[in-house]
Amino acid sequence: MTVATSLFRFEDSYARAVPGLSVPWTADSAPAPELLVLNEELAVELGVDLAALREPSGVALLVGQVPEGVTTVAQAYAGHQFGMYSPRLGDGRALLLGEVIDTQGRRRDLHLKGSGRTRFARSADGKAVVGPMLREYLIGEAMHGLGIPTTRALAVVATGERVLRERALPGAVLTRVAASHLRVGTFQYAAASGDRDLLRALADYAIARHYPEAADGQNRYLDLYRRVVGAQASLVARWMLVGFVHGVMNTDNTTISGETIDYGPCAFIDAFDPAAVFSSIDDHGRYAYGNQPEVLQWNLARLAETLLPLFDDNSEVAVEVATEVLSGFADAYKRHWAEGMAAKLGLAAQDRELVEDILKLMRLQKVDFTQFFRALSAGTARTLFTEPEPFDAWSARREVLLPADRVAVAAAMDRVNPVYIPRNHRVEEALAKATDGEMGPFHRLVDVVSCPFGERPGLEDYTGPAPMGCAPYITYCGT
Ligand code: AMP
Ligand code: MG
Question: What's this model's pTM, rounded to 2 decimal places?
Fold first, then answer.
């Protein structure tokens, strides 16, 4: 069904295709909504009237006050959180506003976060606060700027409410735009329901929405699985190549679409370090930078378990075919990583040893991961090493492998190696100021990280890690 409002034409294909996987639910009212940030580029992509969205009726929609006829729903999902299975997570503080078809014909979810308690809220308050919602906005834009598949935020609206966290903080609602909110956890919930028809309907819906090419395959569900595995192998390689640490790679935060979702305690590494962890709740480093590919594979194994009954009636055969597909993940990941690293280093051909050796040197000498590749193309990388001799030896080995046209090599490297990433101290500074009501640093930082590849004068302060002597960076769960 389509419901045309003055701003959007909302569709509800998800709620209709898998009625068992959501419940109609309404948002809390916000006492004094104030639009903090609107993503104009994304709004244009969605084909919505910018001026109208800024008006009180538009802002009201962005906190979930929907016109007659629009039904907002809370989605159900399960999930493994830090390895522990929770049969009932779901949108505890979020609502699906509806689906819209964007100007390029793509179906996209509009989803609110921080809109109040739902049936899935458990003991939590259903709220969100300004800092973490702006973090999600910011990091999503940075990822988009880097060319990495991601959900994006359309807006953050302050609600005018105080929300109790470690102290009373300004409340906010984020509007998130996603290819869909289908997650591994959605399949876990459907599978656990024991309703085979529901599971099949969900898988059919996922195929229609994300992988229509799988519809005609010999075994469409196995084909769906293969495509999710492929999309996620590519995604996690992209994260690794820019030093992104997601922080909460629970199965409910792993999408079927292959988009990055849920920016909570995430961060980018400074010095290259596979053990890098930023999240205050990740005591054992389960979601450390270097563990991410393996964790993703683990999450995809959980997805396979849900789909087994659809793969084959014979459970042994089902396990066998699923295992075969999943075993392709590691190779696919390694291929994406190797190709990506070759491009980052300016090499025409892959060279595993050369890559491993420079990473080892960078780790030992604590060289900044992002700065290194730009310095390499500029010919100044040597200065980043406290002991430059091993780098010199490595550089000589690389030299002989480079294509002849060095100017072209450097230009190609600069197209894949960002100058600007959301540096942790810059993110904290921008969010702290915004929480106190000053949005300037946030807007500036969004502007910087949205175009990460072209060096711009005057932005030198955004290109490096925090000055020495700053405390290690810790992110608290994105509440
Ligand atoms: P996340 O860690 O953001 O992926 O969230 C995990 C689960 O906790 C989801 O089911 C969320 O809806 C729920 N959740 C997180 N924060 C809150 C909150 N403040 N109120 C209600 N539910 C929450
Ligand atoms: Mg989540």
Answer: 0.98
